[in-house]
Every structure is written in C-alpha cells, then in structure tokens.
Design brief:
This protein has about 325 residues and is α/β, with parallel strands linked by helices. It folds into 3 domains: about 90 residues, Arc Repressor Mutant, subunit A, CATH 1.10.10.10; about 100 residues, D-Maltodextrin-Binding Protein, domain 2 (3-Layer(aba) Sandwich); about 100 residues, 3-Layer(aba) Sandwich (D-Maltodextrin-Binding Protein, domain 2). It has 13 helices and 10 strands. The strands form 2 sheets. An 8-stranded mixed beta sheet has the order 4-3-5-10-6-9-7-8. A two-stranded antiparallel ribbon has the order 1-2. Helix 2 packs across helix 4 and helix 3 crosses helix 4. The longest helix is centred in the first third of the chain and has 29 residues. The radius of gyration is 32 Å and the shape is elongated.
C-alpha cells in the first residue's frame, strides 16, 4: 500500500514535469498547467527528491534535461501516446455503431470475404463485425443484428426475408479430371472419392440425396471423406482430392477462375432458399435493403447453363419496409 501511495504521489507531478521539459521553461509550463512559476519549481523539486536524482540542469533563465530527465520524458511521452490512441479508439467506437453479421463459415469465406469493400459500402453508418456459426449461420449466444443463412432460420424471434435458391452439381479440380479421367455420366461419380460436409441441418443436401434424384444409390462401402464444414470440403476439392457437391451460388469465383470445373450437366435446384433475418424484438438501426440488393445483384442472378433467371422465376421479395 505504501508503494502504491508513493507512485500515486509521483504520478500527479508528471504532467508538470512534461510541460516544463517540453517548453524548457518553468514559467511557460506554469501557464500551460495553470500554476505559478514558483509552484512549478516546487513540484519539480519534489519529483527530484522522490526520485533521488536531478531531472533538470538549472542555468540563468534557462533549464535543460539531465540524462535521467530525458529517460523519464521518453517513458512519459510513450505512455501518453498510448493513452491518446486508446481514447481515440473509444471515441470512434461510441460514435460508430458496430453491426454484428452472423453467417456460416462457407457464406463468409465464399460470399463476403472476397468482397469486403463491397459489403462495407452496404453499411456506411456502422462497422461490420462478422461472426461465423455452423451449420446454419445463426449465432444466438451474442448480440446479433443481421443473419445471412441458407434455410429458414429455426428461431421464431427473427423476422425473415427470403432470397434466392441454390443450384447443386458436382465440382472438382481440372487436375482431378486429368488424373482420374473424364466424368461422362452421373454413375461415374461412384468410382470417385466423394467429399462431403456432414449434414447438420435439414436444409443441407448431401451426396445421397443428390444421387437419389438421378435414381442412384450411394453404396454403403463407398470411399468418402467428410468434413464438419463446407469450406474445408471445398479446400480438399481444390487440392484435387475428390469431387464435392458444388453449391454454385457460393463457388462462382473458383469456377470462373478455372480452379474448379463442373464435369457433368446434371444439377439439382434446392427447394430452400438463402435468407436474411434480424431480431424481431428490435428494429434494425441500419438499412437492410442495400445489403439485400447487393446479394441479389452479386449472387442471385442467372448461372449460365444451369438456371433460368432466378430474379424472374422466383420473384424478388418486396423491400419497401421492415
């Protein structure tokens, strides 16, 4: 307790010391901190006495720092700059609202992260903080402002706005085709290693369901590799480790760049849709429409060779009010 008291007594003298060191004049320092020249001199002498060494060399009408004074000034200036930085951060946080956007790992990795600047433009009045939660993308433990999910959210206390459906077709890397040979029929998939995400939600479609749509059954002893999220499954696919079930709304970038290819023309359209949702018990303090419009523009349009225009066929939801 005695040590803490000593430090507090020294700490109260430091602003006066800093002003005197910076101005190299006790009178000017006094004007800055609201003390007389004699009071400044007394505080400096008290500080030197507590530290046991001089901080200033006094000459006629001028002062200069000793080596100990220079050392103390450097330390004080560094600490003061850190305090200023912290204050600026706190002031910015209080003036600009943080908007918590919850989504799945795959949605974040394939939809949002490649276009951070575009997403930020949708929320000019706030700072975006993205939270990922699998399988559906709804983080219920914290303060969530907006949700982007595939499948209708399971929670009744969300207001929901439906978006577009997705298209599912096999995808693989060109290197995989070079190594294993071309896939000409759906049945050729049964000789491939199929990469999959473990179904954790009724909205998710896996290989077994997709193959049944084309009257095929996946053999019980078929060699497959599973993952707990879709992002990891696609990373393995990009590495040429097998064939994944491609959700084409998510994979536009690796498909357009040629990192992934769609070796078969067969596809399945999902019955479910992507959704935007927000807590029903409070009105959003930001406009949802710019983000919704961006999602439709960037991901909701026609996929050549696989869909008619989703915007025309499904019909875009009204956005006139919340």
């Amino acid at each position: 307790m005695e040590t803490k008291t000593v430090y507090r007594n020294i700490q109260r003298l430091l602003p006066t010391f800093e002003a005197a060191a910076r101005n190299e004049n006790f009178t000017l320092a006094g004007e800055e901190v609201g003390l007389s020249q004699s009071s400044v001199s007394k505080q400096i002498m008290e500080l030197e006495s507590r530290l046991g060494q001089p901080l200033f060399v006094r000459a006629h009408k001028q002062i200069r720092l000793t080596p100990a004074g220079h050392r103390l000034l450097r330390a004080y200036s560094l600490a003061a700059s850190q305090v200023i930085d912290a204050l600026e951060d706190l002031l910015q946080e209080s003036s600009k609202k943080q908007i918590v956007l919850s989504t799945s790992t795959a949605n974040a990795a394939f939809m949002l992260l490649p276009r951070v600047a575009e997403v930020r433009e949708c929320f000019p009045s706030g700072e975006i903080f993205v939270v990922t939660s699998d399988p559906q993308g709804i983080e219920t433990a914290g303060q969530v402002d907006l949700v982007l999910s595939f499948g209708k959210p399971d929670f009744s206390d969300f207001k929901i706005r439906p978006l577009f459906r997705d298209i599912l077709t096999p995808v693989c890397s060109p290197e995989f085709i070079d190594r294993k040979g071309p896939l000409r029929h759906v049945g050729d998939l049964l000789r491939c290693e199929l990469l999959y995400m473990q179904a954790q939600h009724p909205s998710w479609i896996g290989w077994r369901q997709w193959l049944r749509h084309f009257s095929l059954e996946l053999p019980k002893n078929h060699q497959s590799m599973g993952f707990n999220n879709y992002y990891n499954a696609i990373q393995a696919c990009l590495a040429g480790q097998g064939v994944a079930l491609g959700w084409l709304r998510l994979l536009g970038d690796p498909l357009s760049s040629g990192q992934l290819v769609t070796p078969l023309p067969e596809f399945l359209e999902t019955e479910d849709q992507y959704h935007l949702a927000w807590p029903a018990y409070r009105r959003p303090e930001f406009a949802v429409e710019p983000f919704e419009e961006w999602l439709w523009r960037r991901y909701g349009g026609n996929i050549p060779g696989f869909t008619a225009s989703e915007c025309e066929r499904i019909g875009r939801p009204a956005t006139s009010g919340l």
